[in-house]
Design brief:
The protein is of the alpha/beta class. The protein contains eleven helices and seven strands. Strand 4, helix 5 and strand 5 form a beta-alpha-beta unit.
Length: 256
C-alpha cells in the first residue's frame, strides 16, 4: 500500500502554461534591440509575433531568428504607410509595442526654433497615431506599450528638450488608458540599455560607460534588452495593469 510520502515523491509537477499562448504581438521597430528581444520573449511565451522596421534586410533576418508570423517594412513616421499596415492586419491582435522613434538631445540654446515643435511632439504624435490605427483591431485586455526614457525624469547638461518631451509621456499614457478602455496602455521608461544602438551612439566610449554602470548601479551590472523584454511581456500578460509607467534602469535614478 502506497503512502502519502510515496505519492508525493512520484507526483508529476504541473507544467507552467505559456503566458501569451494564442495571442498576437505586433512590434513596431522590431528588427533589433529591445523590440527584437521582446519579440523573442513573446514567442517563448507562446505568442505569434509580427515585426515592422525600416530596413527590409534586417527585418527579414530578425523574423528568421524569432520565427515571426509576418513582417512589414516601412517608416513608422509615414502615417499613410502606418494606416495601411494596420488596415491590412487580420483582426484581432492582442498587444502592440512601439520601440521606434525617441527624444531629441542637445543644448536648448543651440536648437533652431523651427525644430522645437517637432522635438516636443514627434514621439507623442507617433504614439497617438499608432493608437488610433491599432485600437480597433485589438482585443479587450490587450495592451499598447510605449517606450520612454527614465533619464528624462531628471535634467542634466546637454539633455536639452528631451526632459520636457519625456515628461509628457506618463500623463499622455494615463489619459489614453481611460479613452481606449477596455484595451490597456502602458509605458516603459528605460535607463541605459546595452543595445547595438547604444554602442553605435557611444562609439569607442561604450566600454567606459559599461564599466561605470557596473560599478555604480545597485544591481551591479548593466541593463540589457532581455531585462526590458521580460518587463514588457509581464505587462502584456497582466491584464490588471493600465495607464502605468514602469521605470527600468537598474537603480540609476537612485544614484544619479
Amino acid at each position: 500500500m502506497s503512502t502519502s510520502q510515496d505519492r508525493a515523491s512520484t507526483a508529476v509537477p504541473a507544467q507552467r502554461q505559456p503566458e501569451l499562448a494564442e495571442q498576437t504581438v505586433v512590434v513596431i521597430g522590431g528588427s533589433g534591440g529591445i523590440g527584437l528581444e521582446t519579440a523573442r520573449r513573446a514567442r517563448s511565451e507562446g505568442a505569434d509575433v509580427i515585426l515592422t522596421g525600416r530596413n527590409p534586410d534586417r527585418l527579414s533576418q530578425a523574423a528568421g531568428e524569432v520565427g515571426a508570423r509576418d513582417t512589414a517594412a516601412f517608416d513608422a513616421k509615414d502615417t499613410a504607410a502606418l494606416a495601411r499596415f494596420f488596415q491590412g492586419l487580420p483582426a484581432p491582435i492582442d498587444h502592440v509595442m512601439i520601440t521606434a522613434s525617441g527624444p531629441s538631445y542637445g543644448p536648448l540654446l543651440q536648437m533652431d526654433p523651427g525644430e522645437i515643435p517637432a522635438a516636443l511632439s514627434d514621439h507623442l504624435l507617433l504614439a497617438l497615431e499608432i493608437t488610433r490605427c491599432a485600437v480597433a483591431k485589438m482585443r479587450p485586455g490587450g495592451t499598447l506599450l510605449f517606450m520612454g526614457s527614465s533619464g528624462t525624469q531628471r535634467v542634466s547638461p546637454g539633455q536639452g528638450i528631451a526632459a520636457a518631451a519625456g515628461a509628457a509621456l506618463p500623463p499622455f499614457t494615463a489619459t489614453l488608458a481611460l479613452e481606449i478602455a477596455p484595451v490597456r496602455i502602458n509605458l516603459i521608461a528605460a535607463g541605459f540599455v546595452d543595445t547595438g544602438l547604444s554602442a553605435r551612439l557611444l562609439g569607442d566610449k561604450i566600454e567606459d560607460r559599461r564599466t561605470e554602470l557596473r560599478e555604480k548601479l545597485p544591481i551591479g551590472r548593466v541593463v540589457g534588452p532581455a531585462d526590458v523584454a521580460a518587463l514588457a511581456v509581464h505587462i502584456m500578460a497582466n491584464t490588471a495593469i493600465t495607464g502605468s509607467t514602469y521605470t527600468i534602469d537598474g537603480g540609476q535614478l537612485l544614484v544619479s
